[in-house]
Design brief:
Helix content of chain B: over 70%
Distance between the termini of chain B: 40 Å
Order of helices and strands of chain B: HHHHHHHHHHHHHH
Number of strands of chain B: 0
Distance between the termini of chain A: 52 Å
CATH superfamily of the largest domain in chain B: MetI-like
Largest interface: A-B, 96 and 95 residues
Largest sheet of chain A: 2 strands, antiparallel
Number of strands of chain A: 2
Strand content of chain A: under 5%
CATH topology of chain A: MetI-like fold
Strand order of the largest sheet of chain A: 1-2
Helix content of chain A: over 70%
Largest sheet of chain B: none
Radius of gyration of chain A: 24 Å
Oligomer: heterodimer
CATH topology of the largest domain in chain B: MetI-like fold
Structural class of chain A: mainly alpha
Shape of chain A: globular
Radius of gyration of chain B: 23 Å
CATH superfamily of chain A: MetI-like
CATH class of chain A: Mainly Alpha
Strand content of chain B: under 5%
CATH architecture of the largest domain in chain B: Orthogonal Bundle
CATH architecture of chain A: Orthogonal Bundle
């Protein structure tokens, strides 16, 4: 039926018929909710009676709610975790690459990547429990002062989350960087070694620029898989606590929706999280553009 | 020679050994805890030794509801992955094969959907499903998943179809095969490994999804695996042997999927990654 349209108009094509089903469903289930959440954010809504327009009241509430600044800070700090989630697999992939057992090692490092976040959270609830094996081990070797409340100390809890996400994403990162390393010509490396380049110069001046496309791809993947969804990690590890010390924007949306009566406020938090993601994507695109301009010069 | 090599690489050896220990340690520990009687664990949560038992696995399977949870997840994930891969195959084919009005819009919408946090959409999604009586339905949750994760699958399928030489379709044109025929008889059979990879990846993403599963199945009568484990771990916040056993049982299907699908996954994931 799509083929019939073609002779009549230049702009019609079978392509449109093929993309139509997905576009309609995406409009209905994703872009309609996207528009609606902006509407709900300007209302007072309890889920039962009709939403009442209150203008920007929800946003004014957020601006005057001290906990909200901690929540924003939590999101920022966790996004800073990207540096760790990129750097560690980068170094690890380089270290593993020349080894005889490289593919076995990479397969083992990949195991956590196959575990759903909620299960990773459960694993570390057990391993990092106050009286659990890690803390018991630290105390046994006289490092008891280093055995913190991994989930109960508001100054530690976000570091715990960053480390756990790093644990879970390490294997994928190593895998991607390894495909990048395999594409670097060995003669390039040998030439550098002959010039007496040391390990750190090698990493900084050879591997880092050569692997930049992989780094870009990996950051993008982390952004869409993790930064847009801290929720399952937070739920599994800390349930946002202690207090709001590890509450993220998406966890806060869940909490308001779960309590039921302040959906307008939840929608306002959702809008803030959208602005947040938009800023991150813009910053990444901007950095890429600046770098391109530099390379041009 | 070997000695020189060893001396030179000690640093690499140490950090890799450390990484392996850090990755495997927690997993082995949790497997151990899952195979331990609860009473023993409560007394000494940091003790690796003691009795070994399979009783916890039976408990979470039968009375803990993990068997039902796996069935629920299988329904949702099956619907979602089939829908996602079906939509992605159509869109990926069209984007790779045709230049048409609205193509750019289609790319922006499908790619843009990947960046949208589920949390930002969940309140209106709840209202939408509520209005149509689709709440608490595993099948409709699968449809929502299918649409959400179809964006990922589309990027993947598009890059696969772009790599196919255009001659195969031109041959179809010459033989008088219409677009539908070309899609069904030429594109899809060639894309089998890519379809399988996309299927497995979307299965995995859905198996892990928690937020929508918690909020769009509000009665809690038909929990998915992620929800069931979340309930387990909220009940026993410190995470006893029963939680560990539930996690073990809940991971098994994903691990099996990865093991059986590995052939396609490696080839597919890597060709997708190096493209840039």
């Amino acid at each position: 039926m799509a083929a019939k349209k073609r002779p009549r108009s230049k702009v019609a094509s079978p392509g449109q018929a093929f993309v139509l089903p997905q576009l309609l469903l995406i409009l209905a289930f994703i872009f309609w909710p996207l528009c609606a959440v902006f509407y709900y954010s300007t209302t007072q809504y309890d889920g039962l009676s009709e939403p009442v327009n209150v203008g920007l009241d929800n946003f004014i509430f957020l601006a005057t709610w001290p906990d909200f600044y901690r929540i924003l800070f939590n999101n920022l700090l966790l996004i800073g975790g990207v540096v760790v989630w990129v750097f560690v697999p980068f170094v690890m992939a380089i270290a593993v690459f020349p080894m005889k057992a490289a593919s076995t090692i990479r397969a083992i490092l990949y195991i956590p990547a196959m575990l759903p976040p909620i299960i990773v959270g459960g694993v570390f609830r057990i391993v990092l429990a106050d009286e659990g094996p890690v803390n018991a081990g630290l105390r046994a070797v006289g490092l008891g002062f280093l055995a913190p409340g991994w989930f109960t100390d508001p100054n530690i809890v976000l570091i715990t989350v960053v480390v756990v996400i790093g644990w879970a994403t390490l294997g994928s990162g190593v895998l991607f960087y390894s495909t990048g390393l395999a594409a670097i010509s060995p003669s390039f490396i040998e030439a550098a070694q002959l010039d007496g380049v040391n390990r750190w110069q090698m990493i900084w001046h050879i591997y880092r620029p050569a692997l930049r496309p992989i780094t870009r791809f990996w950051i993008l993947l982390l952004t869409i898989s993790t930064v847009t969804g801290f929720f399952p990690w937070i739920y599994g590890l800390t349930q946002g606590g202690p207090g709001v010390a590890s509450t993220t924007l998406d966890y806060a949306v869940y909490a308001t929706l779960n309590q039921g009566s302040t959906l307008g406020r939840g929608a306002a938090i959702a809008v803030v999280s959208l602005v947040f993601i938009a800023l991150i994507v813009l910053i990444q695109a901007g950095m890429r553009r600046i770098r391109k301009a530099e390379e041009w010069n | 020679m070997e000695l020189v090599m060893k001396k030179k690489n000690w640093f690499e050896t140490v950090i890799v050994a450390l990484a392996l220990a850090i990755v495997l340690g927690p997993i082995l520990w949790v497997v151990r805890v899952a195979l331990k009687p609860t009473e023993e664990y409560v007394g000494e949560p940091a003790n690796f030794g003691g009795t070994w038992t399979l009783a916890n696995l039976g408990t979470v399977w039968v009375t803990g509801g993990m068997a039902e949870a796996i069935l629920h997840s299988a329904i949702t994930v099956g619907v979602g992955a089939t829908l996602a891969v079906g939509l992605a195959a159509c869109t990926g084919f069209a984007l790779a094969r045709y230049r048409f009005l609205g193509r750019q819009l289609a790319i922006v919408l499908t790619t843009g959907a990947m960046f949208l946090p589920a949390a930002a959409l969940v309140i209106p999604m709840f209202e939408l499903l509520h209005a149509w009586g689709m709440l608490d339905s595993l099948v409709w949750l699968g449809v929502v998943y299918g649409v959400m994760f179809s964006a990922w699958a589309t990027v993947f399928m598009r890059s696969f179809f772009s790599q196919l030489p255009s001659e195969v379709f031109e041959a179809g044109d010459v033989d008088g095969a219409g677009p539908v025929r070309q899609f069904v008889s030429i594109a899809l059979p060639m894309a089998k490994p890519a379809l399988a990879t996309a299927f497995i990846l979307t299965c995995f993403l859905q198996w892990s999804e928690l937020l929508l599963a918690l909020l769009l199945l509000p009665s809690g009568d038909t929990p998915t695996v992620a929800v069931a484990i979340a309930q387990f771990s909220s009940q026993f916040r410190t995470g006893g042997p029963l939680t560990a056993a539930a996690m073990l049982v809940g991971t098994a299907p994903v691990l099996l999927l990865f093991v059986f699908g590995q052939r396609w996954l490696q080839a597919g994931a890597i060709s997708g990654a190096v493209k840039d």
